[in-house]
């Protein structure tokens, strides 16, 4: 079978300022196909190569595939849907497949707005996609689709979803094929080195209310650290990678395996040839304070911390389970270990004000991370926080759900004022860093790295790609009242998706009512049992403190 996998051409001016990122999903998916005997696989990175529709049409016409597979996160969903629309026009007999986090949870929305999508892979793709390919290869895809777990499709006019597939239990059985990528094009700007995004674990045990990853990956699983280092050694030796970022939500959760991973890197002398970064929680940094210098020895040079909010109220709303004091101490500990720190703030909820934006700046400057990032709150439509805030969401143009466009409108600010406030924080933070910190702090590697980060910001700023400022027409405070975000107001939530949400909300409400009823019943029964009951010595039953009344649960 001829299989073509495509990464959508979507750009937003967010993480791209630091470099061009390799789409790791294709390496894991194609590697699993290869091991199963499907070797006629072609990858088209439309994003990195900025391919337009005409270019994609030409490539599809030349390749004439049997299957076209596309992935999508929420902001790239319309581009992905359009790619499969092109495939319908050019190679109408090819099976058109869509995967990724957005389609997994929003399959009713996708199939309502893009009925030309033949099938959606819901959840981790490797095993589900392989089962789908085998069915298509046998010529019995239509007959077998109901028996394949983890799919969604249109059966006539009915949206059908098969039962969820189990997660991939043996991650070490997946051997990624990194040869599909054009490595000379994936560069980490601060260091000018090739960059990779390997995966050590999947899942997250925490349930931050704004995040969907814990829902997508479900259970937490960790690979054998030696196998991960085998993969990294391959990336360094055969693909010239000089920097990598672990794709994990929180690679330090399993302390034992993370330490083994670091030990293996050191044993193979890899830190001399490759450095790396991670995203993690401040609580893990606090826990591992005595190991941070060891982590630095293993090549860990950059830690991005989900500090999230300066106000403890927001941390509680996000269900982060961290405190402001912990955030500050974690940054100090990393600085003492000579590890670069990046503080991540989420801004732009309904209660955002000029004063709260100023508070995040003052805290960022007080904490003194090397880098700070203010990301616009993006109400992923499949997260718990979205369900709480749904009545306040006015924009359903998912192409703007990218962390840089203000989707939510604060009660006391316009979206233009919010953007201006965030840009003010960036200007002040990095101007002070450029003048008083980066050129003068440390020598050698530290200075080069920090100046490289500054170069990345300046490059994106001059080209007006940072935060999509060029597209929004923002040129400074004088334009805050004239910026335009070009929301497609015709985009709405499909009826089928809305019904699904409402049904889920009803189920959650009924479950909460049942729990409360059970608690009330248990208290009543306990009261009945204790009424008139005497201890063997004749005393009444008393609660802690000597009262005869029980405390409410």
TrEMBL record:
GO molecular function: 4 iron, 4 sulfur cluster binding; cobalamin binding; metal ion binding; methyltransferase activity
Cofactor annotation: [4Fe-4S] cluster
Transmembrane segments: none
Domain named B12-binding: residues: 9-143
Coiled coil (residue ranges): none
Bias type Basic and acidic residues, positions: 512-532
E.C. number(s) listed in UniProt: 2.1.1.-
GO biological process annotation, one example: methylation
Keywords: Iron, Iron-sulfur, Metal-binding, Methyltransferase, S-adenosyl-L-methionine, Transferase
GO cellular component: cytosol
Radical SAM core domain location: 190-417
Chain spans, region Disordered: 512-553
Xref: NCBIfam families: BchE
The protein's name in its UniProt record: Hopanoid C-3 methylase
UniProt source species: Roseovarius mucosus
């Amino acid at each position: 079978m001829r299989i073509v996998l495509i990464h959508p051409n979507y750009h937003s001016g967010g993480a791209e300022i630091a470099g061009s990122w390799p789409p790791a999903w294709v390496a894991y998916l194609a590697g699993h196909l290869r091991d199963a005997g499907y070797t006629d696989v072609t990858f088209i990175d439309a994003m990195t190569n900025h391919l337009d529709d005409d270019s994609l049409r030409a490539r599809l016409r030349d390749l004439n595939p049997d299957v076209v597979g596309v992935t999508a996160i929420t902001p790239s969903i319309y581009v992905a849907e359009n790619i499969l629309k092109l495939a319908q026009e050019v190679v109408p007999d090819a099976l058109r497949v869509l995967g990724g986090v957005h389609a997994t949870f929003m399959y009713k929305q996708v199939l309502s707005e893009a009925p030309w999508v033949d099938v959606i892979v819901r959840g981790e793709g490797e095993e589900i996609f392989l089962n789908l390919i085998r069915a298509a290869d046998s010529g019995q895809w239509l007959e077998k689709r109901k028996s394949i777990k983890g799919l969604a499709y249109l059966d006539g006019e009915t949206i059908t979803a098969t039962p969820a597939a189990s997660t991939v239990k043996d991650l070490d059985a997946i051997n990624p094929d990194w040869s599909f990528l054009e490595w000379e094009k994936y560069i980490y700007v601060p260091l000018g080195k090739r960059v990779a995004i390997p995966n050590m674990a999947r899942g997250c045990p925490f349930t931050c209310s704004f995040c969907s990853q814990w829902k997508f990956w479900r259970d937490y699983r960790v690979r054998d650290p030696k196998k991960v280092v085998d993969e990294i050694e391959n990336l360094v030796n055969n693909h010239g990678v000089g920097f990598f970022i672990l794709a994990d939500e929180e690679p330090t959760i399993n302390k034992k395996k993370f330490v083994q991973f670091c030990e293996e890197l050191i044993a193979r002398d890899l830190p001399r040839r490759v450095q790396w970064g991670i995203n993690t929680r401040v609580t893990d940094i606090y826990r591992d304070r005595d190991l941070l210098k060891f982590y630095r020895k293993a090549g860990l040079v950059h830690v991005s911390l989900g500090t999230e909010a300066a106000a403890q109220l927001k941390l509680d709303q996000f269900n982060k389970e961290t405190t402001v004091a912990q955030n500050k101490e974690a940054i100090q500990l990393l600085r003492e270990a000579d590890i670069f720190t990046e503080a991540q703030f989420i801004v732009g909820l309904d209660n955002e004000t000029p004063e709260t934006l100023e508070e995040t700046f003052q805290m960022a400057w007080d904490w003194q991370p090397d880098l700070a990032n203010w990301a616009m709150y993006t109400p992923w439509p499949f997260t718990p926080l979205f369900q709480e805030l749904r009545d306040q969401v006015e924009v359903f143009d998912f192409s703007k759900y990218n962390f840089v466009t203000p989707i939510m409108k604060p009660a006391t600010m316009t979206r233009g004022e919010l953007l201006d406030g965030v840009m003010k924080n960036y200007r002040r933070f990095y101007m002070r860093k450029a003048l008083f910190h980066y050129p003068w702090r440390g020598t050698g590697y530290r200075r080069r790295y920090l100046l490289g980060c500054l170069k990345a910001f300046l490059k994106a700023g001059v080209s007006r790609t940072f935060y999509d400022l060029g597209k929004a027409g923002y040129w400074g405070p004088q334009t805050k009242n004239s910026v335009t975000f070009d929301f497609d107001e015709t985009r709405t939530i499909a009826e089928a998706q809305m019904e699904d949400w409402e049904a889920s909300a009803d189920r959650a409400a009924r479950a909460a009512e049942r729990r409360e009823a059970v608690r009330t019943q248990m208290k009543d029964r306990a009261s009945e049992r204790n009424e008139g009951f005497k201890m063997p010595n004749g005393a009444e039953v008393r609660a802690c403190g000597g009262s005869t009344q029980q405390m409410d649960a």
